[in-house]
Here is the input.
Amino acid sequence: MKAVWFEQFGAARDTLVLGDQPVPEPKQGEVLVRLKVTGVNPSDVKKRAGSFPNLLDDGLVIPHSDGAGIIEAVGPGGDASRIGERVWVYQAQYGRRLGTAAEYVALDEKLAVPLPDKTSFEIGACLGIPVMTAHRCVFADGDVEGTTILVTGGAGRVGYYAIQWAKQAGAKVITTASNSGDRDTCLALGADAVVNHREENWAAAVLDANEGKPVDRVVEVEFGKNLPQVLDCLRIGGTIATYSSSQDMSPQLPFYRMMFMDITLRMIIVYAMPEQAKQDAIRDITAALELGKLQHRVADVLPFEKMAEAHEIIEGGTVRGCVVVAVE
Here is the structure.
């Protein structure tokens, strides 16, 4: 099968290799998926760059956790009725070496989720990390109906879905955006108010948008950089659910201020989510897809031979929406 892999860490164009690899054999409890599309996420490019130094200890890595395709075979004793089923996959390259940047992937059958016929494979390849992360950020700490949620970076890959999950669940949503295009995107998704996080003391604008009251929860894209402002607009007993801190990777915490605010700080990554949280997200994603209740945004679909370019687009950090690569 054709595949892309890396055997050393470094820049995408220096490390990603396009060639042939053996088609994997599905083991008991696994399915073999012929991939149509592979999704590229920040965690994928960080792994390739060397964020996990022991990742290559057992050999080459075919990257990417997200993708979509059709089940072509099942492992011994598996449910043969699933052959031919359209699926989206997640966690394909978590705790193992072989991900979705290939024609085929064999993985645990529960990681291959039925994809409704009316949902494209391109959208299917966006569901794993962005949509599941957003779901966990919004719902990890209980019902949000009647609450006010601040979503920083609402036009980003995760924020885009967090706005939708929160609004559909009955929350008031305030979000941040730095330009008019992103502002319009957030409002179109249902955000009740948008403030500019590039303005000094933007926390005051959040309070103004919430009639002077602090928000109940924050879905946070830049934890370290935004923390001082977030603390100025979060209520006592509030929650920060954060999934990234790329601009300040070792933030210092004002411990006593946060302690006296009785804050819950929740770190979120799909790989480490409790299994029940994953199944809750899959249930809600499936229902939303079937009812057409989620808007999606695929920023770019690249051909397979441009995998390095796809990685570079993600590393550039300026693209809005998901980046996927066509396998076929």
